[in-house]
Amino acid sequence: MADLLRLLLRVAEKAANVARVCRQEALLFQLLVQEKTGDDKNKKFVQDFKTLADVVIQELIRHDVGAQFPEMSAFIHGEESNKFENGLGESVTVTVCGTEQETAALLATVLDGDHAAASLLARAIHQDPATIDANTDGLTVPLSPSELGIWIDPIDATSQYIEGREEVLEEGRLSPSGLHCALVLIGVYLRSTGEPVMGVINQPFNYKDPAGGGWRGKHFWGVSCGSINVCSVSRPKDGPAGRLSVVLSSSEKPIVKEALTSLCGPDKLKYASGAGYKILCVIQGLTDAYVLSEGSTFKWDSCAPHALLRALGGGVVDLAKCLQSSSGAQDAHTELTYHQPYTECKGADRWANHGGLVAYRDCSHLRSIIGPLKGKL
Length: 377
Ligand code: 2IP
Ligand code: CA
Ligand code: CA
Hints:
It comes from Cottoperca gobio (Frogmouth). Its EC number is 3.1.3.57. Monomer. Mg(2+) binds at residues 79, 153, 155-156, 301. Its cofactor is Mg(2+). The protein is globular and about 60 Å long. The chain has two domains: 2-231, Fructose-1,6-Bisphosphatase, subunit A, domain 1 (Fructose-1,6-Bisphosphatase, Chain A, domain 1, 2-Layer Sandwich), CATH 3.30.540.10; 246-373, D-Maltodextrin-Binding Protein, domain 2 (3-Layer(aba) Sandwich), CATH 3.40.190. By secondary structure, it is an alpha+beta fold. The chain contains eleven helices and 13 strands. The strands form three sheets. It has a six-stranded mixed β-sheet, with helices on both faces. The chain has helices at 2-24, 26-33, 40-68, 100-110, 115-126, 158-163, 254-264, 275-283, 299-311, 319-324, 363-373, and strands at residues 76-78, 83-85, 91-93, 148-156, 183-190, 196-208, 215-225, 228-231, 246-248, 269-271, 289-292, 315-318, 357-360. Strand 9, helix 7 (254-264) and strand 10 (269-271) form a beta-alpha-beta unit. Bound molecules: D-MYO-inositol-1,4-bisphosphate and calcium ion (CA) (2 copies). The site of one calcium ion has 4 residues, from strand 4.
């Protein structure tokens, strides 16, 4: 299934292009950032356009993967629903059509007849992405499409994507917020056990071309399947033994912040936007772990980066299960899985990571983190 990996890298790049086009084309950008003024219909239209960028990206990934691997079609899930209601109250199902013109015509019905915007979007959807140099030659993955399912988060950290603050990333440093936190996440899991086995992360806004060519992206991938553990990011070298560093959401509970401040010290506790970006920081060694005590992430947020962490020898555990477990930290039952919904919940909550999570590169770090949190939550 190295073919699947190469395809996912390609579609993630296509998705990143759409995300960039929505910000770079004045006409689309205007729709994306328009202030909510005027009547309700206008407000709803602006809201819809933000969602439309997400839906379009998810559908293009679904379309391209389903075309090459039809056995997977019924198992490609994502954050967004492709049923859309336009400003006239009509229900439209957004899909990628056979030709650019057909896709443009369909999108125009969602965009209340804005043909110019619809054509720009359709062009980006149907454009072949630049070839990606991913060094996957010689990789064999002993899996078949009929064993696999996919989780897509078309744009994670949407709020940062819309706000669009441009940051210059410093090598080796975690940058808490800005456009670079927005990520395209595509994770592959085993239908039988729910283990994440392959992940692709595309960061559409990694740096701005100094020659004025706009934003350039970066991609990351990993495969973790039996004895095959390969990641495009090499395992960061262990620094001098010192205090652990942990990244949190700025909305994390005070009790968790306090417990972790005593473990890490105030300067090693960091905050950043985007669930996917925080796990990417752990993957890149910009921090040792990401702790989240609430059920505010979903399967589509964690599946892709989880596969990369496993390939590096780490993982993502359910925090609540870890705190209950007598062994205190990692065992096979505490790792997050991706195949079973919480049947007692409705809508997106069926796929929430309800127990919170800890993303880690090293089991010994996980144990150190769980200790101070025991009995506090
Ligand atoms: C969000 C996004 C948020 C994150 C939240 C996710 O996904 O990653 O940034 O909250 O958990 O569900 P926080 O930044 O506080 O960690 P989306 O942007 O796709 O809704
Ligand atoms: Ca998300
Ligand atoms: Ca999203």
